Amino acid sequence: MTQITTPDLATRARTLLDLHAAPDILVLANVWDVVSAQVVAAVPGVQALATASHSIASTFGYPDGEVIPLDLHLDMVRRIVQAVNVPVTMDFEAGYGNAGDTARRAIEIGVVGGNLEDAMKPLDEAVAAVEAVMAAGHAAGIPFVLNARTDAAVRAAPGTARTQVLAEVIRRGQAFLAAGAPVVFVPGLIDREEIREVAAAFGPQKLTVISVPGVSLPVNDLQALGVARVSTGPFTQRVALTALQDAAAALVAGGTLPAGTRPLN
């Protein structure tokens, strides 16, 4: 437990929190292992890292959705934390059955922020999970940066009116903010006017969205709409795997590996 009271951990937590509150949008290209973390951390302008639960699970041959054992998941995140000198926030899915304890264990390995899915549980249960995570941060003496996720937009029943979907997004997000979460993550929020509406309902620097290849608005536009943070979830791993498969296909077809390939490891 000594690690969670070190000044360095508290400093990283405060840095991560301040990055969310800053007027410039926080861009987090999600990582899944040590080398991906080191490569992204080396990019000029990168000030923090986020892990991707889906990508870490895939690395070990597991499907998404808390199928990967928590100990294995945490061990990979620990390796990432120890390999970089920037704050790291972990995607711990829906909390592995005990959001507060999972957050406590994440903090013990040096994590200073986390994503927590509501999985559209009853709102009182989802709020209690948010409160448990924030309590773990307080017990550790750090301002843990919880990115409380609502799945209201991605789990809405087919045919549900968007006005109704957005009302539920806002209801849940505001409840999570009231419970102490610094920011709220809303996957499935892509339309410009919908982003503007939700950002206004949450307040300045409170909304997080995900960048979806070929669909999402540019980062500069998201910043102008009041988004605090944009992440990439599993899509950065898919970018890397797409490049790998394309390179293998070109080689098998009689060509060569891509010119300009850099020695990043």
Structure description:
The protein is an alpha/beta fold and 265 residues long. It has helices at residues 7-21, 34-41, 53-59, 70-83, 99-108, 123-140, 162-178, 192-202, 219-224, 235-252, and strands spanning 26-28, 49-50, 88-91, 113-117, 145-149, 183-185, 207-210, 227-231. Helix 9 links the parallel strand 7 (207-210) and strand 8 (227-231). Helix 5 (99-108) packs parallel to helix 6. The radius of gyration is 18 Å and the shape is globular. The protein starts with 6 loop residues before the first helix and ends in a 13-residue tail after the last helix.
Structural class, by secondary structure, is: alpha/beta
Q: For the record, what is the CATH homologous superfamily label?
A: Phosphoenolpyruvate-binding domains
Regions with little confidence, pLDDT below 50 for 5+ residues: 1-5
Overall strand count: 8
Alpha plus pi helix count? 10
CATH class: Alpha Beta
Strand order of the largest sheet: 1-8-7-6-5-4-3-2
Radius of gyration: 18 Å
| Main sheet overview | 8 strands, parallel
CATH architecture: Alpha-Beta Barrel
Q: What is the rounded distance between the termini?
A: 33 Å
Per CATH, what is the topology?
TIM Barrel
The helix content, as a percent range, equals 40-55%
Number of domains: 1
Order of helices and strands: HEHEHHEHEHEHEHEHEH
Overall pLDDT: 96
Principal-axes geometry comes out as: globular
Portion of residues in beta strands equals 5-15%
